[in-house]
Amino acid sequence: MKPENTQLEQAKQKAAQEAIKHIKNNHIVGLGSGSTAAYAIKTLSQKIRNEKLNILAIPTSYQAFLLAVKHGITITTLEEHPTIDVTIDGADQIDPHLNLIKGMGAALTREKIVASATKQNIIIADHTKKVQTLGENNHPVPIEVIPFALTPVNRKIQQIGGNPTIRETKGKLGPVITDNGNAIIDATFGPINNPKKLEQTLKTIPGIVETGLFLNTTNIAYITTNTTTEKIERKQKTT
Ligand code: 5RP
Question: Which one is the CATH code of 136-209: 2.30.140.10, 3.30.420.40, 3.40.50.1360, 3.30.70.260?
Fold first, then answer.
């Protein structure tokens, strides 16, 4: 691994360690998806063992589920525990108001469901995820779409000024299929000056299941380098 990659991994680990401090005995914990959240899952399993904690977890993806099971974390469901105490998740972009773009791991819909069921949402990310404006550097907004609707949704995104691409991946021909059996459109809009308006507009398009714009869901973000930790806090969830 190149030194800069090692430093990035150390930063992710550091953010995960900070977030894990919020987990207390008997908590129901939401497990985020992605490489940074994976550090939180591993660190949580160590904490559960060391401190003999009684923790039940709700994963936001098949990836998080498999990792949690591998590390001996007990899984529960939203049916059994519709309110989650703390969720720790990653992000692709974070603006100064703690609005996020998520979904480069295609887990955005379950991540948003879990976030909305959570009392305290903690986002962990290395410093490269911090931006002034969401959509900067032409970063796309991942959008989960029912496959039947892909072509009309593509057109409608173009009509509102977006540039959509159906996500494909290595190791499989054709579109990425999410844990919910849907496709992902990555749509660039340039810098998003009014994310709330864009979110509302996208949500009116039939066939769009969910977007990767996470607005007003985050309570705390830990943004790290390998040597520094920045904590950004919002006292109350406003949605
Ligand atoms: C998955 C996500 C991830 O949290 C996001 O992509 C960040 O991943 P990573 O920590 O690997 O950069 O939203 O849908």
Answer: 3.30.70.260
